[in-house]
Amino acid sequence: MSQARMKLLRDMVLDAGLELVSTGFRNNRVAVEAKAPNGLTRTFQLSTSSRIDPRGDLNEHSNIKRFARQNPAPGEAPAIEETDMSKKPATHAEKQLTPIEFYRLCELVKKVNAGTVSGIDVFAAGLGNELGLSVSIETAREAMTATGTPEPAEWTQLPDPHVVLARELAAIQEALGQTPSTLFKRYLETLA
């Protein structure tokens, strides 16, 4: 069995484009010392037991290939791993919920009156409690966007109280037919 495991390890090293330096046994495992094109050496090992560990074999094969990629011949640029550029970054909902849970969240968003709560944070917590899940504010917003549910006007930040009071006074003066003083007009212009 150990000779077959040794052959497997040697094949992995040679397939990666590395040079065999030595082979042997270490700590009850088959071992191969490999040399990269730039001269660096490293030892790779596989189990010799009759109970084969396929995941361990794959991990060691990945280590061999990574070592070969990171140590090219002098003057050669290291190989750049290709990434799939078509993948868009995951949204908060994709990170937090499964598609079925997000669908259930969207259905609940359509049924619930968002204007009855004080803000998005309370709304998200209520949705989470109803579904028995943890729903973040960003995920609740994504569900509202997906269902076409606008944010209620009650959630928007109110201006400072003095701004509201000044505008109301100006509206009352106009309704009474009074003209505000020039100082009050200048103050209103600073608030706009």
Description:
By secondary structure, the protein is mainly α. It has three domains: 2-70, no CATH class; 92-155, no CATH class; 161-191. 51% of the residues lie in helices and 11% in strands. It contains eight helices and three strands; from the N terminus they run H-E-E-E-H-H-H-H-H-H-H. A three-stranded antiparallel β-sheet has the order 1-2-3, covered by helices on one side. Strand 1 (19-26) and strand 2 form a beta hairpin. The chain is elongated and about 100 Å long. The termini are far apart. The model has no long low-confidence stretch (mean pLDDT 83).
**Proportion of residues in β-strands:** 5-15%
State the share of residues found in helices, binned by percent: 40-55%
Number of helices: 8
Question: Which sequence of strands runs across the widest sheet?
Answer: 1-2-3
List segments where confidence is low: pLDDT < 50 over at least 5 consecutive residues. none
Structural class: mainly alpha
Return the average pLDDT rounded to an integer: 83
Q: Return the string of H and E elements.
A: HEEEHHHHHHH
Count of strand segments:
3
Rounded Rg: 34 Å
How many separate domains make up the residues?
3
Major sheet summary line: 3 strands, antiparallel
Distance between the termini: 84 Å
The best one-word shape is elongated
Please provide a brief summary of the model.
With 192 residues, the chain is mainly alpha-helical.
